[in-house]
Write the structure tokens for this entry.
Amino acid sequence: MINSIYETKDHLFSFPSSSVTQDRILAAIDVGTNSIHMVVVRIQPAIPAFTIIAKEKATVRLGDRDRETGKLTPEAMTRAMDALKRCQKIAHSLNAEDIVAVATSAVREAPNGRDFLQQIESELRLMVNLISGQEEARRIYLGVLSGMEFGNHPHVIIDIGGGSTELVLGDGHEPRTLSSTKVGAVRLTADIVNTDPISNSEFNHLQAFVRGMLERSVEELQAHLNAGELPRLVGTSGTIEALAAIHAREKLGVIPTPLNGYQFSLKDLRELVNRLRRLNYQERLNIPGMSDRRAEIIVAGAVILQEAMTLLGMETVTICERSLREGVVVDWMLTHGLIEDRLRFQSSVRQRSVVKIARKYGINLEHSERVAQFALTLFDQTQGMLHDWGTEERELLWAAAMLHNCGHFVNHSSHHKHSYYLIRQGDLLGYTETEIETIANLARYHRKSCPKKKHENYRNLTSKQHRRIVEQLSTLLRLAVALDRRQIGAVRQVTFKYDPNQRELHLLLQAKKPGDDCALELWSLDYKKGCFESEFNLKLIPQLEQSKLLNASS
């Protein structure tokens, strides 16, 4: 039975206000360190719910990187490309309206990871979005919530991947903690395990290393538990499901279908780990249901789960078969207005995250909100006339406008450059790495130089589309900043009037107070309009609406 997203008073999700009823087909792909997974789902917006109608998996081992350079190997990239082609064909055959793909640890860390994503986009016309470890954890949480009821009770979610392990603490509402640690089954097998069966010294090293790496995340998680709370542990991912399948076959004689809700104890896990460590690869491969690729990494994966449960003080783990891929689906539904999250601050996780970063760096929120409103007004008035960007690009412009001044936290001098680095390192949630890079670049170019290829931050945008977003929308942000030059809200509203024959765009300002000539705002607009004029090949003429000013004075 496939669980659905549904509304209860305890649940994170609630019904959308819109009355959309037509079913929609979506494909979600997870480009992981060990495998590429895809689910194709039928979304029923009226419920709202989704049902998995197809799955695809390929073990491509992107995590088998070059030991000297850390780069993704040509062989692994070829395997991944072939798998993605198959996924595309399946998705298209099922009439998926969209394919949402994300890449995680292996691609995130490889020096040539972004080049590989460019290659995928070029050859397959498929955009694979790089996401941070925290964003991966957030989407895992959304995926688990779509398949398991929390009932307001705290749950710890552990997802053991090939390159990283995510830990999440949540109670069905907004997550309390999100963490991603660089311990994964593929990574540890490659870095630590050189003997088969694993030697005592390597096993002890493996245990100690995993424990040391997980301690900080576990301590942070435990600090967010209230007195007397006893959370339940939920395990996701191929490693944990493989361990559950071995346990079920031995204890029950059959593997439950689905595995969702199946439990096993830390005591049984320790016994299983002690047996697995004494088996060589061929003996592990002979375990019923064990694949050749899983047999290579199962010891390291089992040790991660064992040490995590020990540090957390958890005696049992419950399996949830939904994880990152399903979380990508839920996130898409949220983004497209098919689910409403009652707990969203200013309507979305993205906006909550932006405001949190703004407060962290002491930004004047009133000024930033005015700049953001001006930027969106300019965007809307020029849409279809000077540009054809849509809702997603509009959101990136809003975020950049809200955070454009965060560099003042470091220093006033060159604060636009400091803003770039603070945004890049700010752990913005709800955005892909490319989107964060775009926001950071938009903020970087709110003053001084226009975007140039010689700038390293601009070159970090590997997507031509996102470079164009920065080139065009940063000019609107410059004008928006100028419109609140005194940071007192002197301008009530702005209106564009376009003269296509003269290639002139008149920017008409309406003053908030009678008698205010907005001289400083007009001067600032003249000073900052160069990039705008150059980008759109027209002349910008800022002026005060005299009639409005005279009427206001009378």
User: Anything to note?
Assistant: The CA atoms of residues 70 and 109 lie 8 Å apart. The first helix runs from residue 74 to 93. The chain has three domains: 13-132, 148-321, 346-553. Confidence is low (pLDDT under 50) at residues 1-19, 342-347, 548-554.
